[in-house]
Amino acid sequence: MSIKKYNKISSYFILPLSIVIITSGCSFIPEQPKVALPVAPAYPYQNNTKSSNNIKASDIAWQDFFKDKRLQKLIEITLENNKDLKKSALNIEEFKAAYDIQSSASLPNINGNAGLSRGKNQNSASNTSYQIGISLTSFELDFFGRVHSLNQAALNQYLATEEAYKTIQLSLISEIAKLYFDERAIEQLITFAKHTLEIREKAYNILKKRYELGDISDLDVRSNQVLVESAKLALLGYTRQHNQVINGLVLLTGSSNPLENLPPAAKFNEQKLIEDIPAGLPSDLLENRPDIKAAEYQLKSANANIGAARAAFFPRIALTANTGFASSQLGDLFKSGSFIWSIAPQLTIPIFDAGRNKNNLKVAEIRTESSIIDYEKTIQTAFKEVADTLAVRDTIKSELESQKNIKQAQSERLRLSNIRYKYGIANYIEILDAERDLFSAEQSLVQLQLLDLKNTVDIYKSLGGGLNSNAGKNN
Questions:
Q1: Which of 16, 224, 309, 427 has the fewest beta carbons closer than 10 A?
Q2: The whole model's pTM is what?
Q3: Which residue ranges form the domains of the chain, and what is each CATH number?
Q4: How confident is the model at residue 121 (pLDDT cuts 50, 70, 90)?
Q5: If residue 300 lies in a helix (H) or strand (E), which one and from where to where?
């Protein structure tokens, strides 16, 4: 067969594809709703919490924010193994596949086909026919944007799922860090409790001997015994809390022994976090918070569905076409005169649907209104989270300073009480009271230090920090 004839045949095969050129039509997707920022233009407490730099939380890699190598390793394990994150990743794949399925409707479905038919007529004459060609099946000409609207809805659902994944990742980093700080703080409290118990038991044993010699009263012995048992109770309580924190780490990391084979831990009071992070403006959250972005994509998806519902009121044109060759003799299949083609456009005009299209449009509009409410609520929730963290930051440093002064004063009080008791100026109850109050002050200081650490993590997370990573980069 000549090259000229091949070119002619090729032009016949691409005939159905040429119809795609005219399929771009109008769109009935309404303009994206304008949502005013439903919060104050600035955060409360911000006047007392100004930062000296302009760095954004979203620009700080979590490896730079959390300096503790042990914590960094825990975060890596969590991001690799956590079940919620894995499920969210599968959701992304699912919605990506759904989007790909929907977007495929924008292009024609073309199939190659070949066939052989054989039969007899009433005169017992045998008929044989060979066919080969390509076909285009029920391709919708999207004059009114129905397919395009559905495609946009699916795309935004997929993008929302990606942002939901980022939200889970950000939350996991924050949760694992706060659990780790819990573990470090409880270890510190256990150390205090053991030391206190050791001192009290020694004192108790001495007092019992002095009581047996008649030097002191039974009241002194019993008062010290109460302190011994209180220290034991505190130690048992902290041990229980430590076990529960380890259980939380097991769940988040997906590891049966999350603290095994890790780098050495930094001491609780030596944790270094980036505290000088400016809060910025509430409007910055629209760009930095993945949960707000996800809500925005959900709103766009719902809005696109309105376009699809509106397009359903207009005629729908579907095209079926076939082209190829047919012959009664296999050897004559590609000879002149064997070319065949057919095209069958189908027009569907909605006349009576018992209100289905009208109600579908109403449902789409209501869902868009609901998505607007969800979007506004997500912004308000984000604003509250940031405001709450700033409220803590506004006072926490002063609280810590006061609590350190209290601990120092209680320590000095205990020293002076021991001197007074040594010289017979005070009774032993005064020492017991001072010792008990010092232990309480030490515990309160650790709790405030833990609150300070967690608050810094919450600020970082609420402002959109935790998504960036410097893994694989030179620090």
A1: 427
A2: 0.83
A3: 26-120+141-315+358-462 (1.20.1600.10)
A4: low
A5: helix 290-311
